[in-house]
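Field reference: "sequence" (input) and "structure" (output). Example, Regulator:
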Amino acid sequence: MIPTSTPSMLRALPPEHQERLMRYAREVSFPEGARLFEEGGRADRFWIIRTGTVELDMRVPGRRPAVIETLRHNELVGWSWLFAPHTYHLGAEATTPVRAYEFDATAVRLMCQEDPALGSAVARWVGDVLAHRLRSARTRLLDLYAPYGSGNRI
């Protein structure tokens, strides 16, 4: 069974690493319907949601984008900033008004390189998020497009 939410920074990082990371945060807001990023775009920032919801979607030729997951409070939006070539693998849209902490990806990557313990903790956190998102994407795409769905039948 897939967990209902991705691992939050609050559960994944020790307090001292959270404090260091939050020094790079700036508060931002997005209106309902705003696109945070597009699939294939340059991943130069990421967000942690404070309030509101963001849907992650994937382009599907000949169809509307498939919604992969809905993210909420304390969840990470964007993981592609950590891994070369630093391009987003999904798109993201605010489905309600959103307030979030925004982080400059280059600055955070540099901080992680300078502090291996912090870098390791951030990599584990983002890796856990990535693993969750891949499971969610697989299940969602099977539900949408496979002849028998994901196999979860009553």
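The domain at 15-144 is CATH 2.60.120.10 (Jelly Rolls).
The chain has a mean pLDDT of 87.
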